[in-house]
Amino acid sequence: MHAFIYAHNMEEKVKQRIALGTFFFLSGLTFATWASRIPTLKTFFDLNEAELGTILLAMPISSLIGLPISGWLVSKFDSRKPMLVGFLLFNVTLIWIGFVQTTLGLIVAISFFSFFMRILNIAINTQSIIVQRNFEKRIVGSFHGLWSTGGLVGVAISTLMVKMNIGIGTHLMSVSIFTTVLIIIAYLYTIKNDKSSTGNKLIFGKPDPFIVYLGVIIFLAAICEGGMFDWSGVYFKEVINEPIFTYGYLSFMACMAFSRFFSDKLVQRIGMKKTYIFSSLVIILGILVAVLFPYFWSALLGFCFVGFGTAALFPMTFALAGTSNKYSPGMAISIISTYGILGMFIGPPLIGYLAHAFGLKNAFLIFVVVGLLIIPISQLFFRSQSKLMRE
């Protein structure tokens, strides 16, 4: 009898893990579908770089608006409900982007797209913490690995669509319909009744060191990821002089996706405290290799190292946020995600300004500074927590 109950529980939690993994994978695929068709939109609307940059500013702004709402939704309902509704509306806005005809319409469409993406991201990360509690071994990193893998698949599908000369409207609508069917099926197996009864209100006053330290770590990690997402291709084109400039972006993304499946084992073996140091050192090593040896294979290797280094930062920090004594997991993730959006917002333009002043190769050294800063901030976090435990 006990064996039957154990087998039933095991089956249930595995289903929940697969269902949530499906949400992560399809979320990455959907986001990459949009991101990889940005050049198509740039050509269709005849935008220059400055105009495109201004339009894309709508994304972090609407994301910031979505943060408190997503935190409230996750605290008000089970995380699975905003997870499903957020994804469905995320898909509707993806179709909208594919058929929009005016620049104003594009701005409105990507604003809603980013808004619903933020609700979805907070909800799936909140649910990942709840799912993790049912497993002895660490599994949070694997969910982020699935997101990155979905991103790679999304880029591959987009490349095929462009080669086959399939219009952006047909492409985005096909992906939206496909992912909608799968998430509705996956939703049936997600965790129910995970709403937290406490810690659902934002508390103003003296800053909470627990949240501030984690927020700063996410901010620094987001500068690295955001900068690499936007500038790795440009680096390969302008510094390495590689005609197929997507190699830089793909090497970074592929290594980040691959290593996220093993980041949990690394954390389990050496602990979070040492993993933050290790991750930071690998980022620094990767950037120095790419900058000091600006040739195809060495830069490719360097970007792979940066992918390995950044892989564990977001999953680890979100997992730590879920242990907050002051806030529920959903609210804690919502708050530190604000720092992440600021990092994504600041990172790419910062590289651009530094590149204009000192050259793109030298501008990439800012990642070395950011990597170095992660070490003392993360160690201060663990020191503050051990101090609280002693008290």
Molecular structure report:
- The chain is mainly alpha-helical and 391 residues long.
- It folds into 2 domains: 195 residues, Up-down Bundle (Growth Hormone, Chain: A), CATH 1.20.1250; 196 residues, Up-down Bundle (Growth Hormone, Chain: A), CATH 1.20.1250.
- Helices cover 83% and strands 0% of the residues.
- It is globular and about 50 Å long.
- The model has no long low-confidence stretch (mean pLDDT 85).
Secondary structure layout:
Blueprint: H1 2-36, H2 38-44, H3 49-56, H4 58-76, H5 80-99, H6 103-132, H7 140-163, H8 168-187, H9 209-238, H10 246-270, H11 272-292, H12 296-311, H13 313-321, H14 329-358, H15 360-363, H16 366-390
Overall pLDDT confidence: 85
Radius of gyration: 21 Å
* H and E order: HHHHHHHHHHHHHHHH
Q: Please give the domain count.
A: 2
Total number of helical segments? Answer: 16
CATH class of the largest domain: Mainly Alpha
* Share in helix: over 70%
- Largest sheet features: none
Per the principal axes of the C-alpha atoms, what is the gross shape?
globular
CATH superfamily of the largest domain: MFS general substrate transporter like domains
- CATH fold group of the largest domain: Growth Hormone, Chain: A
- Count all strands and give the number: 0
Structural class determined from secondary elements = mainly alpha
